[in-house]
Design goal:
Residues 20-67 form the Leucine-rich repeat-containing N-terminal plant-type domain. Keywords: Leucine-rich repeat, Membrane, Repeat, Signal. By secondary structure, this protein is mostly beta strands. The chain is 10% helix and 24% strand. It contains five helices and 26 strands.
Amino acid sequence: MIFATLASFFLTLSHSLTLQSDIEALQALKLSVDPNMIPPSSYLTTWDFSVDPCDNIGPKFLGILCSSPSNNSKSRITTLELDGAGYDGFLPPRIGTLTELTSLDLSRNRFRGPLPDALKNLNKLTRLSLSGNFFTGGIWTWIYRLKKVERIDLSENCLSGRIPARISKLRRLTQLSLSKNGFSERIPNIDALQKLQILDLDSNMLIGSLPKLPPRLRTLRLSHNKLTGHITSLVNLDHLISVDVSDNWFTGPINRGVLSLPRLSHFNVSFNQFTKMEVNNYFGSGSRLRTLDAQRNHLRGHLPVKLVNFERLEVINLAHNQFTGQIPMAYGQRLGRPWRTLFLDYNFLSGRIPPEFGPVAVRIRGSLANNCLSCPLRIPLCRGQQRHASACHAVTDG
């Protein structure tokens, strides 16, 4: 049985349409996977090397697409996209002989070990997705060679080391996701990536300040790192729609220019060390901002009244800061119109709450607890104790 299996794996068809080195690369990949981790209904089960991979229409060789041969040339594998069946194996160096590949997707499996340097030979790739595996090691020796690549997703692996500065040579790149790995050191300047729209570096160990970023960036995710400095440079990125820099060590002000970016819809700066929120004297009718999360910072002063001018704002979280003074009366007029979430708990706000907080607050998700407010417990947002008077006086006197 073992002999028969090996014979079928290494069968060479005399009239094969597929280039023999491509067939051998597929064989090497299947052999690198633990056969006990190939479910009966998975793509790899359909890889039957007694037939030609490119001379097959039907249930054989699922996940494979080929080029159409011209003249007497052989067909080549152009797409290799496996299902997320939990394959446990490694990526063999022979994968680098599939030089006509434009798409490689092995995501949501259990592939492990280092990514082979032979990946640099896949210089026609436009899409590379290896997310959700257990790959280790670095990416600096090969990734910059993929000059035609448009989308790279290496998220949710065990990769480490630095993000190479030469990644800025990938001028066609529109999406780069390296989140949930162990990358460290500084983020290199990548402003040369003129087409990059999505940058996701969440959950690594990156340090230093914000790098120079591409002008067309729409989504920026840098949360759960160790980044420092200010975020003022974001004011130059007019195309930003979503920003998440939460759980870092950023300091200084939350700049008024950032909050006023024309396309910005989601803005999360929570769990940092910002000390001031600047809100433009700005009517906000053109703003698209819907979510503002600045909880757990060191924000001081009075609550920004001008937030009511952001007409599409729905979710506000300013909890666990050091705001003082009264809740602006204008906030009451925005409850439910369109504010539907308002967390102001764990500050040092004082005085009476706006009268609108009573009748409509039952429909509002949020909290005013742990302040210094006169806040009737019959109002849902007021449930939870207020601070002891001594704590309130200490802040007021300071």
